[in-house]
Specification:
alpha+beta; 5-stranded antiparallel β-sheet; 3-stranded antiparallel β-sheet; 10 strands; globular
Length: about 140
């Protein structure tokens, strides 16, 4: 009986380790995608709110946060708990003004069912401005 329990415990640890490794891999992929998006851009001072009129320019990076492409500026707002933001989550944002602010009420819903999947809390938006490299 002890051998069976030890085997079950060992299997549970292996499954848990595999899940942690997968989550790490998903976050690393999103971080790599973000790095590609920000290539040629330089970070500015973080802000609480941004003018985000076109919602089709908002991208969800699973296990990272939200990215808004405003042309020459890309805004990145990291989730305070990035592990809660999955690729199957669709954010629904209740805005209180024409701007998108870090303290707007943000809920996530599962992409494949109408069920609530969580709340989204963001850090400040960091603007990344396109760098003029002098090439003509």
């Amino acid at each position: 009986m002890k051998k069976i329990l030890a085997s079950v415990a060992a299997a549970a640890v292996m499954v848990g380790a595999g899940t942690a490794a997968q989550a790490e891999t998903r976050q690393e992929r999103s971080e790599a995608r973000l790095a590609e998006m920000l290539e040629g851009y330089q970070a500015g001072e973080p802000v609480n709110c941004i003018n985000a009129i076109r919602s089709n320019r908002l991208t969800v990076l699973p296990h990272v946060g939200l990215v808004y492409d405003a042309g020459d500026t890309i805004y990145v707002a990291r989730a305070t708990n990035p592990n809660m933001l999955d690729s199957d989550d669709v954010p629904v944002i209740e805005r209180y003004s024409s701007q998108l602010c870090r303290n707007d009420v943000m809920r996530t819903f599962d992409r494949y069912s109408p069920s609530f999947s969580g709340a989204l809390f963001l850090e400040n938006f960091v603007p990344y401005h396109k760098v003029d490299n002098g090439e003509g």
